[in-house]
Amino acid sequence: WVMGRGTARGTNIIIPQMVHYNDEDYKVIQINQYAFYKDIKLKSIILPSELHNIGPCAFDSCVNLTNCILPDRIEYINSYAFHNCSKLTTINLPDSCVCNEGAFEGTGITTPLFNKVAFLYMPPTFKGHYEILEGIRYVLSGAFKNCVHLSSIKIPQSVITIGDGAFKYCSVLTIHCEVTNKPNGWDDAWNIVTNTVAYTNH
Fold first, then answer.
1. If phi over 0 gives left and psi between -120 and 50 gives alpha, with beta otherwise, what is residue 185?
2. Cβ atoms of residues 136 and 154 within 8 Å
3. Structure letter (DSSP) for residue 190
């Protein structure tokens, strides 16, 4: 497998399934941190089907990136992987995928990002009330960071884990939780800015 810093600099890039190095073939299963950092020429990229991990800041500040196709087997998108990719407005998220804080911060994405089990990212432009879907089990760290126009949110009983700082800088938020008290799986700093919280049985 390959972890080295990316050297390709082009407009449209297809990363191969295998690379040949020192008479050996290696599967590409990871994009290393800062691999395409500030590559202003990059407009689209197709990632290999065996890719499991996108490293921190891998595509950070690729300001002209408009299209990135994630493989079905992707498992981790690390912190700030697509940070400041301002022209990236949509992305496919397989159900196996989880993200770290800031993975999509500063992108052009304007709709909530979630899959069957995890809520990953709320764009800070969202206004009003939001209800996390029943069945979601995880709300990731920083998922609602900087959502200063989010007025209220309902968290269903199915959510067993909330990461630290999930609602960081949400200054006017009221949180409605369909549990009677904080579950053990919710990080102690899940509500770091002490937004108003209402616990209820439903």
1. alpha
2. no
3. T
Confidence (pTM): 0.86
The answer to whether 104 touches 82, Cβ cutoff 8 Å, is yes
Taking only the tens place, the pLDDT of each residue in 145-186 is 999 999 999 999 999 999 999 999 998 899 999 999 999 999
- Is the sign of the CA dihedral 31, 186, 168, 95 positive or negative? positive
Question: Taking Cα atoms as reference points, which of 104, 139, 138 lies closest to residue 123?
Answer: 104
What residue type is assigned to position 40 of the chain? Answer: I
Euclidean distance between CA atoms 144 and 181, whole angstroms: 21
For residues 161 and 186, is the Cβ–Cβ distance under 8 A?
yes
Looking at residue 99, its amino acid is C
Residues 149 and 74: their CA atoms lie apart, in Å, by 31
- List Cβ neighbours of 6 (8 Å cut-off, separation of 6 or more): 31, 32, 35, 36, 39
Location of structure tokens 């992305």: 91
E strands along 38-90, which residues?
44-46, 53-54, 67-69, 76-77
